[in-house]
Amino acid sequence: MFGPGQYVPDPTEGIIDVKDLPAPQLGFYRRNHQQTPCPRCGQLASRHKADQRTLHDLGDVSTGRPVDLLVTYSSHHCSTCKKYFNIDLSDLAPPGSHYTNRVIDLTVRVVVEDGVPYRPASWHLWRDHRVFVPFATIQNWVETGGKKGARSHPRRVFGVGA
Ligand SMILES: [Zn+2]
Asked: Ligand 1 centre and the CA of 30: distance in Å?
């Protein structure tokens, strides 16, 4: 008989290839409007197409799987400014980012409030929140004050024991 305090390691511990992590569950979000105000002149601009981007969100700790948010968004053309632009998604994620704002905010809190170095922070985020963020991306967020997309795929996923 083991008590409730028995140590059970995370089943993904020691994985060294990101492809071996559990596959993401998909979430869906739409912000696909016929019209939206132009960020330059404020006039309503018509949609000319819709597009999609994938955002890594906080994962599902009950299933142990990460969550990818598939975002459908509209792209618009302002006839006054003669410019194309995408509908504003900055409340969801920074422009060009592969992660949602809440992942970035939580990550920066883990590093700043708890004083966790980047590599262990990467493991912490995966273990406790099921979102994989390469440590170089964490470093980029923290050192640029967050809100900046970065792409980095180190060979070692978490660097545990490295
Ligand atoms: Zn305009």
From this structure: 23
How far apart are the CA of 35 and the centre of ligand 1, in A?
12
Question: Which tens digits make up the pLDDT trace of 3-29?
Answer: 788 899 999 998 888 899 999 999 999
Cα separations (Å) of 145 from 101, 136, 140, 148?
A: 13, 14, 8, 8
Return the residue matching tokens 């704002």: 101
45 has a pLDDT exceeding 60: yes
Distance 94 CA to ligand 1 centre (A): 22
Q: Determine the residue type at 124.
A: H
- 90 CA from centroid of ligand 1 (Å): 19
CA of 36 to the centre of ligand 1 (A): 10
Torsion of CA 16, 162, 65, 88, to 10 degrees: -100
Q: How far away, in angstroms, is 76 Cα from ligand 1 center?
A: 10
CA of 41 to the centre of ligand 1 (A): 4
Q: What are phi and psi of 15, to 5 degrees?
A: -65, 130
How many angstroms separate the CA atoms of 19 and 21, rounded? 6
| Cβ–Cβ < 8 Å for 7, 52 | no
Mean pLDDT computed over every residue of the chain:
90
